[in-house]
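Design review, sub-item: ligand-bound model
Attendees: FS, YL, KQ
YL presented the inputs for the NAP complex:
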Amino acid sequence: MDTGLQGKQALVCAASKGLGKACAQALAAEGVNLTLVARTPGPLSETAQEIRERYGVEVREVAIDITTPEGVDAAISAFPAIDILVTNAGGPPPGDFRDWDREAWHKAVDANMLTPIELMKRAVDGMIERGFGRIVNITSGAVKAPIAVLGLSNGARSGLTGFVAGLARETVAHNVTINNLLPGPFETDRLEQVFKGEAKRRNISPEEAREQRRNNHPAKRFGQPEEFGSACVFLCSAHSGFITGQNLLLDGGAYPGTF
Ligand code: NAP
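KQ shared the predicted structure:
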């Protein structure tokens, strides 16, 4: 299938590793030029170089914290005529809601709700003018099936989801779609951190935590980042102009509901 994305420009946030990197690679494979953002310059440069060499596309690097106003400015300024925006940032830490003060909530809401909204605000009018835009927000399966210890994530990302539901209906007439991808467990550094935290809480080894989680999963495996990247490309493709305001759960069947 020709995705119609050759020569488009994408801003992919939190993209030196994991799911953001997988989206960047999958877009590059379709001929999309990229701006990649992550805080740590070394891994960011390695990823950028790997993508340039493998796919022959242009890759700009912005080493900055995307959850700050300066981060948003720098990411947008690197190439303002954005056709595709993938919002992403690290997830908030787990814990007990009794321990979270206003600052902890502000941080989570900044990272996982306000930053994506600010990025959309900067990108969407140019997309409307050019008559093409695809926005994909990486959120979490926890938006659909909340995970108690991830209350900061459940709350902040649900706020983003509610906002997107409204905006997505305003932009679609201009061929600008906005959708959310909801990852279940994908094999990334983040998932390893989750197992380490779980192991500590339950006094077992991270390997045991991993194996138990895998055995309890209907697919008996975790998602591969490439599978996530492919879903992102489909939502960004020329064929997806009639899909907007949706929350696509990628969890290998872990969510037990019919809908
Ligand atoms: P990951 O493998 O740890 O990768 C995170 C990437 O984001 C890295 O490139 C990191 O680079 C960058 N990053 C983190 N914070 C950033 C910031 N403030 N500004 C710019 N870049 C930042 O994580 P992942 O598994 O891909 O997860 C991506 C998102 O999906 C997270 O929000 C996570 O909570 C969510 N999620 C993941 C899973 C899963 O199973 N993997 C499941 C549900 C939800 P630097 O550290 O150098 O900045």
